[in-house]
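Lab channel / #folding
Pinned by the channel admin:
"Please post every new chain as: sequence first, then the structure tokens as a reply. Keep commentary short and put observations after the output so the thread stays searchable."

First post following the new format, from NK:
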Amino acid sequence: MPVISIVLPVRNAAATLLRALGSVRSQRWPDWELIAIDDGSADATPAVLRAAAGADARVRVLSPGRVGLVAALNLGLQAARGEFIARMDADDEMHPDRLAAQAERLRREPALGLVGCLVAFGGDREAQAGYAAHVDWMNALVSPEAIALNRFVESPLAHPSVMFRRELVARHGGYRAGDYPEDYELWLRWLDAGVRMAKVPEVLLMWHDDAARLSRTDPRYGPEAFFRLKAEWIARWLRREIDPARKIFVWGAGRPTRLRAAHLQTHGVTIAGYVDIDPRKIGQTVHGLPVIAPAALPERERAFVLSYVANRGARDWIRAELQRQGRAEGRDFLLCA
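Reply from TO:
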């Protein structure tokens, strides 16, 4: 039985698949199986996969027809026999040490359920500056504490960079289909269940940013889908972790921020007011709720702050200001966008 099962869903990726397969075969950890799920490809992908399976018995090909990404992923999970499951995409490349570094970390630290790695941005940093900045932000989150604390900002893990224990699927469920990114939903659900996640602090995957990738073309990966999804898990976290007597304030009184924070109310979160630094907004009432300055926040024992300001520079400033007031991240406030 292989120690590692690599799950690789693929659709019409003949142009990059050989490169990805070559990076798998170059791994210094040899005890793996590759489960490639052909999601109804109409190009040369099936022929490439058949050739790979013919050349290496560790390659297994599933051909269910067009089932969609989530179903393909779950078929791969069901077929996996390894102790650990590694994700891989057909347009990315593994460093030769990737599987070994992640498997050794999971064996060394049984308290960890999932281990990712740092990723190199395989795109044009000027033309795709937003995605490049996201990669830089993700790469700064390495420890279980940093990943858990920042999970409501954006997805803290690059999907094809992770390896996790197969038992987690049986315990907490696999991928779920919905109007949200399936990988982020999985991270939030598993983190909420107490799964500890960390990263090997080395660049072990080249994460290519293709203009045709689903995260750029499918509305399930758009910003509003992320905010809708986050609201459910933020609400669960608040109910479990925060004294219900504390009032919830949302930092950000602009219309986009208010609309995104409004998803919280559908999950039973009562917002007491908004925080802003714009003097034109301070003192106003928005939908019956006051807009106050940061200095007017109640003492930390009576208030909890959710920052919904998405701009990264502003986010850092808000964190610093709340810490200056003696408020601790995770205890008195969370950054959520």
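NK: The two ends are 42 Å apart (CA to CA).
TO: also worth noting, The longest helix spans residues 223-241.
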